[in-house]
Specification:
The protein has two domains: 3-135, 3-Layer(aba) Sandwich (Rossmann fold); 139-369. It is α/β, with parallel strands linked by helices and 374 residues long. The chain has 15 helices and 14 strands. The two termini are 31 Å apart.
Amino acid sequence: MNILGYLRPDGQIGIRNKVSIIYTTDCSRVIAQRLQSLFPVGTQLFGYPGGCALREGPLHKIVALGTHSSSAAALVVGLGCEGTDADLVAEEIARSGRPVGAIKINQEGGDLKTIEKGSRILVQMLQYASMVERANMTPSDLIVGQECGGSDATSGLASNPITGVAADLLIEAGGTYMHAETSELLGCADILAERAVNDQVAQEIREVIAEAERGCFAQGRFSWGYGNIMGGLTSIEEKSYGALSKSGTKPLQGVLRSYGLPPGKGYYVQIGEPGSGFFHGDPEGINQFAAHGAHIGLFTTGCGSTAGGLIPVIKVIANPKRAQLIADNADLDATPVIRGEKTIQGMGVELYAEILAVAGGKLTKSEIYGHFEA
């Protein structure tokens, strides 16, 4: 599979080519949305739902997303009085060498003038993006993140193990793979610690899973809930070991906390950055991966999900009944494993081939439908 990516000034290579429109506060979100609606082709929208007080975690996250390999340029839209200042965000993104612009509503004279100025900037940025240098990529350049949502009995039996096989194949080709959701790995700390590349990583994975367990008790609930019960899971143990199967078999290289690219190749567990909050929703989980440089997100679902994110999302479902209900949203039908028609290994190879196809330009269902919920 020939993968022709987009070369960025900081050396990253992206599989998509977008101009980012970033709002720094809820007060500038509507204007950012208006601008994106005027230029829907070639732009992507995200931002900080808050913004009055400067918090390092959210600031680092939107900067990381603004310097993602899929982002050719960025327009930062602020109100003008928020802590997450538009100029500050723009300056941080500009360090990557990307074209960046910043506009503030209360400096431009209100909505209409801000939209006018922002539109002119976006035209220039979209023209720039259309001329970006192309570069050959190999699987070793790819970073892939995996999340499971709406888990049911088939998630641990088929969908998650399939992604584990695909992860192993990607890593064997020199690529990078990550998953999150440590609250769904309770009881699995020692197993992952045995796969750690050194004692420090082993201790760290034990600590983050213990932290997740304390958080569950503090909130009075585990990640295993009503939807999982309806899907046939009977205990947190079943959900945890089902979630573990998405990790594959390769050595654990480390735990990703600070946003930005992983420090090396191989398998990582991602937990986000202190101060930004751990993600609680499916789309937000995908964007956490994007903030760590992931080109593609794998999303396994049993009960069904249509969520998307800033990066292409490959949906995998193995529940025969649910697969019929959301067939239009699934990218890989894993029900043959449940029916005994295909093996986990064989379908893992199919998923790996789909990853390469999407990296090469194939659109996922969530991209085609324009799903972006966070």
